[in-house]
Amino acid sequence: MALVRHDVFPEGSLPQADDLLAQGLSAAASHQVGSNPFLIENNIDCEAGFKRKCAALGRIMHHAQVGFRSFDKSCRAYTEIYESCLAQDVIIDRYGLCLDWSMGYPANQRQDRPKGTGLLLAGVDDFKKLTQCAPVAPHFGDFVLGLPAALENTKAALAAGSTAIGNLGQYFTFRLPHWDDDIYTTSATLKALGLIAAQEVEILVHSNLDDGFAALFCDLSCCLGAVLLEKYIVNDLIGATISHCYGHHFSDPTRRMAFHLALAQVSASPGTMIYGNTTRYRGNEQENYASLAAYISVDIAGQNLEPTGHAINPVPVSENIRIPDIDEIIAAQVFAARLVEQPLAQNSSLDMELAHRLAGEMVFGAIKFQKNVLDGFTRAGIDIHDPFEMLLALKRIGGKQLEQLFGPGLQDETAPRGRIPLIPSTIIE
Fold first, then answer.
1. How many CA within 13 A on the CB side of residue 24?
2. What is the CATH number of the domain that holds 292?
């Protein structure tokens, strides 16, 4: 099956990427990174430099997720988690702030739109007030970029001193209820990326691969290939800095380590965080501690072997049962910190020779996948030098068809997606 431009873009014309990026550039004149306690206390202008310093020193960063429906409780958690952990010699470096998915709608439409259970911020002042509660880096990782409200939410996140903003991965796979205008969504996202690229300091464009195509691909080489494609669009075409997260669906420890090693080879940008392998949380809290120890040990070993600036993310063991409370978040962070103190330069359960071999094969497959996609788009008449067309084409074609058409594995009608995966994903197994 050949890719045809008209099938992907039936519209007579599309918005001009240069015009959208120029609107983002223009907005930068009045929207720059604000201040917060994290930047002040560490005497820095952005988190990316802090991450590089931690990686150079061999210091493993800690990431925690915060975002209760109550704004007041979220502010209290922002302070309490940091202070309680600090009293136990544990430093929380960054918070992932869990906004409600309805924050993805334009602000003037949210009142009448469906809502989830996450944190609702009324405006810029709420963004600012939240990040003033402790010297912890605010990571606005979900429902900011990649959705219709991308530009206005990015402006608010920058004003609050956030220098890691996402989630670009959600652009490719998420759809808000009753919102089908992907032209509007892509335009808003490109404007926001233009604003980010025009900042005076480095902003990490966060992309959680598991929220994008990683959960859909059968071949981990394609997951890594998505990194290369996003890097090409964000870094090369737009001039910003992409930063990747993964982890939800990486259950096999050797392949989890292999992906870390492969990602370190293809990306010079510091990573945001490695997410917890939450698909392994299936039992009660006591049982889930075994799963927490298993994946976090691999992530600690990975940062010791190949420091990438990714923060580890010990997910509370109650997450498969309920929204974890403040004390449960603290308990998980302290547990992980004590594991960091153990002699875990190598993880005894890992076959490191196999992990390095898989990483090499993954990089080879990822490069082939990216080339196949770009060559295929070019043949179809899709402008691979236009970030608007690249983003919208990837979104509309989707992970399943991208892998079918352009995957690096040998074609086989009996295999998933019609190709034999070079490195089978653990989610497929």
1. 26
2. 3.20.20.240
The pair of structure tokens assigned to 180 is 């089908």
Q: The pTM is what?
A: 0.96
- Structural domain span for residue 103: 14-418
- H or E stretch at 243: strand 241-245
What's the pLDDT at 279? Answer: 84
In a domain, 294, yes or no: yes
User: What DSSP line would sit under 282-328, residue for residue?
Assistant: -S-HHHHHHHHHHHHHHHHHHHHHS---PEE----TTTTTS---HHH
Looking up tokens 């989707």, which residue turns up? 398
Which pLDDT tens digit goes with each residue over 143-172? 999 999 999 999 999 999 999 999 999 999
Q: What per-residue confidence (pLDDT) applies to 348?
A: 62
Structural domain includes residue 427: no
Of 320, 342, 1, 24, which is closest to residue 195 (Cα–Cα)?
24
Q: Kindly list the distances between the CA atom of residue 26 and the CA atoms of 190, 194, 254, in Å, as whole numbers in the listed order.
A: 13, 9, 46
The answer, yes or no, to whether residue 216 has pLDDT greater than 90, is no
Confidence of residue 215 (pLDDT cuts 50, 70, 90): confident
The terminus-to-terminus CA distance of the chain in angstroms comes to 27
The sign of the dihedral angle between the CA atoms of 360, 234, 222, 64 is positive
167 upstream amide cis, omega within 30 of 0: yes
